[in-house]
Write a structure and sequence with these properties.
It is built from 10 helices and no strands. It is mainly alpha-helical. Helix 8 crosses helix 9.
């Protein structure tokens, strides 16, 4: 990790790479697909991940102490690919999650919310976080179910998707039961 890391410089590098590879025609189609909720560079997932790889390598990515700053900056940008980059960057820290990281995950869920980011965050970030810090699972699950925020509620339903045989069925069915009367797309 670089000691003199600058969040602004890092975010600007990401933006420059994406801007140099944008496709306005694809951007129009992507925006239509997402119901005009977000702006796009027009970089599809496979190409975006290829472009992101070098920026997310261990020696290039932010130290954990700057991760929140970088993610919030990326999250504040207009182009949706920058939020995708932020999520995938955060996933690279899953073996080094810190207790406070759940607050950043909740920020991401509650801001610029839509199924494309919330589903990823639920399964790949929150799910992994609760494997590392199971002592916080019930606290956040209860809080999110009561929140009246459909995206936090959706996260409570989805975070166990990668758990397979480790799924807490009782918790899952309890969450389904508590949310069954909500008229949203779960």
């Amino acid at each position: 990790m670089v000691n003199d890391f600058s969040a602004d410089e890092y975010v600007n590098k990401v933006k420059t790479v994406f801007e140099e590879n944008k496709d306005d025609n694809k951007a129009v189609d992507m925006e239509k697909y997402m119901r005009e909720q977000f702006e796009f560079y027009g970089i599809q997932a496979t190409e975006r991940r290829k472009l992101s790889r070098s920026l997310q390598k261990m020696d290039k990515r932010p130290p954990h102490s700057k991760l929140s700053q970088v993610i919030i900056k990326l999250w504040s940008e207009e182009q949706r690919e920058l939020q995708y980059f932020a999520m995938e960057l955060f996933e690279r820290y899953k073996n080094d999650f810190r207790i406070g990281d759940i607050k950043l995950m909740a920020y991401m869920i509650e801001n610029k919310s839509w199924w494309d980011t919330v589903d990823f965050i639920s399964k790949k970030l929150v799910g992994e976080y609760f494997k590392t810090y199971p002592q916080f699972r019930d606290e956040f699950n209860t809080k999110w179910l009561k929140s009246n925020n459909i995206w936090l509620q959706r996260t409570a339903l989805l975070f166990q998707l990668n758990y397979k045989e480790e799924t807490d069925s009782k918790l899952l069915f309890n969450n389904i039961n508590k949310l069954k009367d909500i008229d949203e797309f779960f």
